[in-house]
Structure formats: C-alpha cells, structure tokens
Write a structure and sequence with these properties.
Length: 104
C-alpha cells in the first residue's frame, strides 16, 4: 500500500506523463515527412550539408526539432517540416534516430 501511494505522489509531482516513443513509428514518420530525402535511409546525410542523425541522443533531437518548430532555430526546410510535427511525432523520430548505429 505504501509503495502504490508513493508512486501516485511521484506521478502527480512529475506532471503529465512522458510520451511513449516508438522506434517503429519513428521509422514510418521518416518516410511520411521525407526525412530520408536529406538524412538518408540509415540516418547518414546524403551530402555534407545535411547532418548525420544516426545515433544522435534522443533528448538532443527532441530539443532541436522543437526549436525548429517554434522558430527559435532557423533552417528553411527544417522549419517547414517541423511546423507539422506533433510532440508525439518528435518523440518517435528522436527514438528512431537514437536507435540507429552512429555514423562512422
């Protein structure tokens, strides 16, 4: 009984629950939003101007995508795409790219 009460208090203090990210959904969203066009199917940028995303930390990816979405970070194409992303989309994309083996 004490443990469940403590868990309830902790969950209330934590605020809204974290999004349950999905690597599989992230892969599908890379296709849906055209991420693979610049960042490649395996998370390796197709040209030096496009960053490698494979193995990037999920927290960092989420921060950057939200910055593009809000306009705090500017890049013409990324800003256009990020405006369409929900918080769940961002969590899924970040989980997918974080799951990939980092680029050499």
């Amino acid at each position: 009984m004490r443990v469940s009460a403590a868990l309830l208090v902790l969950s209330l203090l934590a605020g809204s629950p974290a999004l349950a990210e999905s690597v599989e959904q992230g892969l599908e969203k890379t296709k849906e939003y055209g991420c693979q066009t610049c960042h490649g199917k395996d998370g390796q940028g197709i040209m030096p101007m496009y960053p490698n995303l494979a193995g990037q930390k999920a927290v960092y990816m989420e921060q950057q995508l939200k910055a593009f979405r809000s306009g705090r970070r500017q890049a013409e194409q990324m800003s256009i795409i990020a405006e369409q992303l929900s918080d769940q989309d961002i969590a899924d994309l970040a989980a997918y790219y974080a799951s990939l083996k980092p680029c050499p």
